[in-house]
Design goal:
By secondary structure, the protein is α/β, with parallel strands linked by helices. The chain is built from 17 helices and 29 strands. Strand 22 and strand 23 form a beta hairpin. It is elongated and about 95 Å long. The relative contact order is 0.08.
Length: about 700
């Protein structure tokens, strides 16, 4: 197609452009945008290529031609694609596409939809940037680890981070990607998180959007530096053994004139009908998920971040807004599908095809859906009718928990289902439990600020509820600042309140989070069977009068932990808890530990079980349960399982019968041994049998 010498061969270029026009391209960035190339004479420059099917005329304008509207016309080739070669250009040269109006009345300057770098706001131009800079990645060991350790049977504890407000300079200015690296990498490692999730780092014009109103789907925001600088941050996180997830936003795009909105003078990337093509609540437009070229654009954007930036996964924002045609729309403001329903069939097909393509190329990545409804089979395979994601945010759990913790303890007894209802559906999907940015903004209060009572009770509440999250089935996500016991809710314009660490309660809270994270990582019952009843068993879910829950977590070897949470300010000494087998149980973790700001109440010595039925168990024991606390117990000595006397006598008789006649009989028959029965003991240790649900991704979850 092209007469220019570029990185793609003529054959590969033809195939990629064909796939682009058919809606199945996953690497469109390799032929669209601006790339180093040569013309027929061998002159070096950049080749520009853009899709704008209805534009009457396009020119490239920039530093190199003094923004002259006529100096550099583009040629329309085929499939609505335009291209132009400009010799003698340099990296970081600014440019735009001038889309000329059909009536000759002017033009609209557009940033490159496939631009790899952008000018720093408020400038909205794209900048030339060759992705092949020779950056030397050092994360080979991380890739090897990732490929051999699928996430389903591994711990996952995510630290959600907004780079613009995690930490700033003393003057309140942004840190660069490289400066952030020097602080963030050792901090996350020390705190014991397994992954960092970055709020969108795609280019966006407005700080207040937190990155969610994206204008550059292939450009790392220039607020913090260059593309190579972002690669450095990700690389260093990987070398520290930390995965990186990025927020990716295909749900909508803003109506900024320089962006995708009416790109060629007509609805190009968006649905033409506003009843499908806009989100009034957000003031944004909706991608046309049925248009082949738009599908290719989005498929390629997702693959781009996984391949060019080594992201370990994408958290897909606002999935529900894409799935429902009537999302936040009143009667008459939306169009039913061909079947008369409210499902966006094109969006469903888009997700299924997206996840199929992603996992075919990279089976070990994370595709996480922020889906806020009860849409079925979000994390089930496409061939089973699912959307094909491998994880989903549990928004119901987050909303219920945030409602519960704000209540005065007296009223919690009447809202007990808030903390137990999640187990009604906990294994219907592969869930991540989030305490996210959305719950600590817009006057909702910080995690600490939601807690009732005086300061000691608030800090105790943070510890108790964080422990409940870390022991509840599902992977974990915590938004930055919660680990500090931050008073103020999050604000994107300011750094976290790091100064609070000069005060003991906040240092102790940080120490608690670090210790709890370490305990989570070290104890396989808390993560090895997150997706099955085999990994969880209620002891008592309905002690609402005491604001208390207790349960078992099991690993695949049948090793249990007992978790007891007291969400009341009442000290409950002598609280009886069922045990799955007889033995001695010791407190392995106590949120009331003085090291974390507690008062040191609770059991210090191991506790022996008694043959007193409780919580559907034959054995039980009593514990000292501090107020507003959570305790975790493990078995330190398991009593042998004794055989019934009648059975033991039969075995002795059988043994006596086998004595050879030639041998002298013993003076007296020996007593029947009451040695531990190993098989019985092992059986007793195992979690209660339960039918295991079908794996979300059958090829991967059993590893």
């Amino acid at each position: 197609m092209s007469k220019y010498q570029e990185k793609l061969s003529s054959h590969d270029l033809f195939l990629e452009l064909e796939a682009f026009s058919e809606g199945r391209s996953t690497h469109a960035w390799k032929c669209f945008g601006a790339h180093p190339a040569k013309d027929e004479s061998g002159a070096e420059g950049y080749l520009f290529r853009v899709w704008a099917p209805n534009a009457p005329k396009i020119t490239v304008i920039g530093d190199f031609n003094n923004w002259d509207l006529e100096a550099t016309p583009m040629a329309k080739v085929e499939g609505g694609i335009w291209e132009a070669f400009v010799p003698g250009l340099n990296r970081y040269d600014a440019y735009q596409y001038a889309i000329h109006k059909a009536d000759g009345s002017g033009f609209v300057g557009k940033a490159d939809p496939y631009g790899f770098h952008a000018a720093t706001r408020p400038d909205v131009s794209s900048k030339l940037y060759d992705l092949d800079t020779g950056y030397q990645w050092g994360d080979q060991d991380w890739y090897a680890f990732r490929s051999k350790n699928p996430p389903y049977r591994r711990p996952m504890n995510i630290y959600e981070c907004h780079l613009g407000s995690w930490r700033r300079t003393g003057e309140g200015e942004f840190l660069s990607y490289r400066d952030i690296t020097s602080y963030l990498v050792p901090y996350v490692k020390e705190m014991g998180f397994t992954h960092v999730e970055l709020l969108p780092v795609t280019e966006h014009p407005l700080d207040a959007s937190w990155g969610y109103q994206c204008t550059g789907y292939f450009a790392a925001t220039s607020r913090f530096g260059t593309p190579d600088d972002l690669k450095y941050l990700i690389d260093q996180l990987h070398q520290a053994g930390i995965g990186v997830i990025m927020d990716w936003v295909p749900a909508h795009f803003p109506r900024d004139a320089f962006g995708l909105y009416n790109f060629d003078g007509t609805p190009t990337y968006e649905y033409a009908d506003p009843r499908k093509g806009e989100h009034k609540e957000w003031g944004t437009d909706v991608f046309d998920f049925g248009r082949p070229e738009v599908r290719s654009f989005l498929f390629s954007s997702a693959m781009f971040w996984l391949e060019e930036y080594h992201m370990d996964g994408l958290r897909v924002d606002a999935v529900s807004s894409m799935l429902y045609l009537d999302y936040n729309r009143k009667q008459g403001e939306w169009l039913p599908n061909v079947n008369g329903g409210h499902e966006n069939l094109e969006a469903i097909k888009f997700f299924q095809d997206l996840n199929t393509a992603i996992f075919a190329a990279h089976p070990d990545v994370l595709m996480v859906a922020e889906e806020s409804t009860a849409w079925p089979k979000v994390t089930k395979p496409v061939d089973d009718g699912g959307l094909g994601f491998n994880f989903k945010w549990n928004m119901g759990w987050m909303n219920d928990i945030c409602h519960y913790i704000k209540l005065d303890p007296y009223f919690r007894q009447f809202n007990h289902r808030d903390i137990t209802f999640s187990l009604m559906y906990a294994f219907s999907e592969n869930y991540i439990l989030p305490l996210s940015h959305d719950e600590v903004v817009h006057m909702k209060g910080s995690f600490f600020g939601k807690m009732p009572g005086d300061n000691p009770l608030k800090f105790a509440g943070v510890r108790a509820f964080y422990t409940y999250m870390m022991t509840h089935p599902g992977k974990k996500l915590t938004f930055m600042g919660a680990e500090l016991g931050q008073w103020n809710e999050w604000h994107f314009e300011y750094s976290l309140d790091w100064h609070l660490l000069q005060y003991a309660p906040h240092r102790q809270t940080q120490d608690f989070v670090k210790a709890m994270n370490a305990f989570y990582l070290e104890n396989s019952p808390l993560w090895e069977q997150d997706d099955s009843w085999q990994g969880f068993q209620w002891l008592c879910a309905d002690d609402n009068n005491a604001n208390t829950v207790s349960f078992l977590r099991w690993d695949r070897k049948g090793t249990p932990l007992i978790v007891v949470c007291n969400f009341s300010p009442e000290h409950r000494d002598g609280y009886r808890v069922g045990a799955p087998f007889a033995g001695s149980w010791a407190v392995a973790f106590n949120t009331d530990d003085p090291a974390y700001g507690g008062e040191g109440r609770g059991d210090k010595a191991p506790i022996k079980t008694e043959k007193i039925p409780c919580h559907d168990q034959q054995q039980s024991f009593t514990i000292d349960l501090p107020p507003m606390s959570a305790v975790i117990l493990r078995c330190v000595r398991k009593n042998p399982v004794r055989k019934p006397k009648a059975e033991a006598d039969k075995k002795s008789e059988a043994k006596a019968e086998k004595v050879p006649a030639a041998k002298k009989a013993p003076k007296a028959a020996p007593k029947a041994e009451k040695a531990p029965a190993k098989k019985a003991a092992a059986k007793a240790e195992k979690a209660p049998a339960a039918d295991k649900p079908k794996r979300t991704r059958a090829k991967k979850t059993d590893q």
